[in-house]
Amino acid sequence: MGMTTQTTLTRDLVLVGGGHAHALMLRMWGMTPVQGVQVTLINPGPTAPYSGMLPGHIAGHYARDALEIDLVKLARFAGARVILGAADEIDAARKVIHVPGRGEIAYDVASLDVGLHARALHIPGFSEFGIGAKPLDAYADRWDAFLEQVKAGSKTGAVAVIGGGVAGCELALAMAHRLQGLGKVNCVTLIETNTKLASATPGADRILCDEMLRLGITVVSAVEVEEVTARAVKLRGYSEVASEFTVGTAGGFAHDWLAASDLEKDSQGFVQVDDQLLVPGRKDLFAVGDCAALMASPRPKAGVFAVRAAPVLYHNISAALTGGAMKPFRPQPDYLKLMSLGSKDAMAAKWGRCLALPKAQLWRWKDHIDQSFMRKFSEFPEMKAPGQIGPVAQGVQNDQMLCGGCGAKVAPGQLAAALTEMPTLKRTDVLQGAGDDAAVLEIGGQKQVLSVDHLRGFVADHGLMGRIAAVHALGDVWAMGAKPQSALLSVNLPRMTPEMQARAMREILDGVGEVVRSAGAEIVGGHSTMGAELTIGLTVTGLLEGAAITLAGAKAGDVLILTRPIGAGTVLAAEMQGKANGRDVAALYEFLARPQGDTAEILRSAHAMTDVTGFGLAGHLMAMCRASGVASEICLEDVPIYAGAEALAKAGHRSTIFDDNKLAAPVFGPESAKMALLHDPQTSGGFLAAVAAAEAEALIGELQTAGHKAAVIGRVTEGIPSITLT
Q: Could you tell me if 533 and 5 are in contact, meaning their C-beta atoms sit under 8 angstroms apart?
């Protein structure tokens, strides 16, 4: 997701869903992109599970992260932007995808790879008490939570699997193996409506039955499921089956929003595609994977076909974007089926027969294939940076990309030196100038605060970046104890066509507007330009009902409260290098995009307050100490940290402004990775407040009840301005 571009963007490619075909296609795109194309990936979460390793995870052979494709890292490699949200509508005539909470995302060319689900909604009670095997991540989450309940003794371990096909057998074996490891035996039941298991391969049923007998799995066949309850599966004409965890694997269903669309579909609601993977009647819309139905060569729903389709999808999407010739996708008539058997054993079949090889050897073969596939998304090839032309001046460094957000600020020392040369205030209606979070003006007896802030783009999701920029800019108003009044928007877009400019501006205005209006303010105008990269800034005003909360009011004996974790700059710097975990990045974005007006209102009685931004926690605390003429102590253990930040700091990741921040605000205490985060620049950071000690406990309780990760991190003491770790 490069923030800087010298090529004019002319086309929007939108990939809906992070399925196997899209993941492989993005990897190919990263190695050979089509210039001038903005690629957008829309997916509900930052990762996508690999179906081949799911049974191994359920059985306990793989950790959860071993089977998850990190879409954030993949998108960074591919130069794509990620929108984290679940699409719920497509309008192919208008060429837009709707994402709840994000509005419409427009495309020139799009592709669908959203898989299917196995919710079995036709069974009474299933939607409330059961879980489909697909989507895989939802099933894996519920299974992990169930295991914790079994370990704690609140569940007995009773499991029922509805559907005796290959998927049902494989998951029943995996769950029985895992429960056996917890001392729970004979507690898995496999329910099949037919008279026998549906392996479709001669000889396979015998192997499956032997393995199920070994693991104590009860097979109930030729029955009809009447209802699913919290503790049982009720069967017609059969005693009910005890179950605290009911999984549905019987068949796959198209997502409701696709089934309800006006696209060409088969009788089951899956999107039809021709041999070029194009939706009929659309030269700009593709579909692949389980959500697609191949008209020319129908095949069962299997991940292998999505994997084989990826190169053709990459070629044909490139052709659609450049006007080239497309080629057909011709799936193979059969494929190798490797099925895990609970323990580290497997069976294999092809061309209608089982392969006569040792089960342990087949497991190792399957594990090798699966691990090789996943390495494609953890070991990206090093891409060569553009070479320099001509000689290089002394002092030029190219070892780290310039950070986005507040990591791109001018260093505190240089900024302070420049500000000392500014003339003193002469207007009587300017009550407070440079040096605090915002200026304070008096107009007709009304006090107004005024501030400006802008951010260099660090995420190419324009709407999300707009939200974060707005929350960040309003932080100065909130920190002064004022209520937001108005905002002027300043936007610099990368070079793109007029149509793409309009799309980008709509996304930005939606994001900024939602935050500004929810704060009680209005966007009253702005300015826009085009340049090398995305930047979003806001000039904001607010109204004061009483005295402003400044940096200068902290008193010895006050308690220091921090309302949001630190470490954002480190996570963002690592993400730019493709080193941060996608889940950690997604969790960080959620924090950064959340408004903080309620936080400021709770802390209205603070003696001093500031929002922690580019100069880091230490830099902003030192500014408070200097303005108030006090010293401070921090208990490092009590400082909240964003997920992944400390590990990244320990690995040596630093924002580009880190060294300058450390020099400007030294901290006395032992060096450590967590101590380094005190100098980490924060974007949309929390508030640092000095409050009366008697009020601290009640304020923390109120903040935490409101959902804020607030903590007491230290205290204000007498002495020369300084920061000491305790």
A: yes
**Cα 506 → chain centroid:** 22
Question: In this structure, how many other beta carbons lie within 10 angstroms of the beta carbon of residue 344?
Answer: 16
Q: Which of 187, 354, 403, 406 is catalytic?
A: 406
Q: According to the model, what pLDDT value does residue 198 have? A: 58
Whether residue 708 sits in one domain with residue 661: yes
* Cβ–Cβ < 8 Å for 482, 542: yes
How far apart, in whole angstroms, are the C-alpha atoms of residue 243 and residue 251?
20
Position 1 scores a pLDDT of 43
The pLDDT of residue 296 is 82
For residue 2, the model assigns a pLDDT of 45
- Spatial CA neighbour of 467 closest among 563, 595, 575: 595
Contacts of 277 (CB under 8 A, 6+ apart): 111, 286, 287, 288, 292, 309, 312, 313, 316, 329
d(CA 283, CA 224): 44
Pairwise CA distance, residues 404 & 91, whole Å: 34
Report in angstroms the alpha-carbon separations of 444 from 87, 441, 448, 482: 50, 10, 10, 17
**Helix, strand, or coil (residue 245):** strand
**CB-count burial class (<10 Å; 0-12, 13-18, 19+) for 405:** buried
pLDDT of res. 384: 54
- Half-sphere exposure for 473 (CA within 13 Å, toward CB): 35
238 and 309 belong to one structural domain: no
CATH number for 581: 3.90.650.10
- Provide the pLDDT confidence category of residue 461 given band limits of 50, 70 and 90: very high
Distance CA 171, CA 117 (A): 16
- CATH number of the domain that 534 lies in? 3.30.1330.10
Q: How does DSSP assign 376-420, residue by residue?
A: TTTSPPPPPPPPP-S---TT---SSPPP-BGGGSPPHHHHHHHHT
* Selection from 118, 56, 68, 132 nearest residue 339 by Cα: 56
How many CB atoms neighbour CB 449 within 10 A? 28
Q: Return the pLDDT at 350.
A: 78
Q: Is the pLDDT at 144 greater than 90, yes or no?
A: yes
Tell me what pLDDT residue 302 has: 72
**Beta carbons of 171 and 140 less than 8 angstroms apart:** no
Distance of alpha carbon 612 from alpha carbon 634, whole angstroms: 15
Q: What is the mean pLDDT of the chain?
A: 89
pLDDT tens track for 175-198 = 999 999 999 999 999 998 886 665
Q: Establish whether 406 is a catalytic residue.
A: yes
18 Cβ contact partners less than 8 Å away, ≥ 6 residues apart:
41, 43, 47, 48, 69, 71, 113
pTM of the predicted structure, to 2 decimals: 0.89
202 within some domain: yes
In 397-539, where does DSSP find H-type helix? 412-419, 462-479, 498-518
Choose the weakest-confidence range: 116-125, 410-419, 498-507, 538-547.
Answer: 410-419
Cα–Cα distance for residue pair 334/24, rounded to 1 Å? 21
How many residues appear in the chain?
A: 726
Both 565 and 541 in one domain: the answer is: no
Residue percentage of the chain with pLDDT more than 90 = 70
CB 166 within 8 A of CB 195: no
Condensed to tens digits (0 to 9), the pLDDT of residues 19-72 reads: 999 999 999 999 999 999 999 999 999 999 898 899 999 999 999 989 999 999
**What strands lie across the sheet with 687-691, from one edge to the other?**
608-611, 687-691, 559-562, 711-717, 631-634, 723-725
The total domain count for the chain is 4
Q: Look up the CATH number of the domain holding residue 241.
A: 3.50.50.60
Based on the domain organization, do 666 and 697 belong to the same domain? yes
Residue 114: C-alpha distances to residues 111, 254, 258 (Å): 10, 9, 10
User: What percent of the chain shows pLDDT beyond 70?
Assistant: 91
| Residue 385, pLDDT above cutoff 90 | no
682 and 569 in contact (C-beta within 8 Å)? yes
- Is the per-residue pLDDT at 221 higher than 80? yes
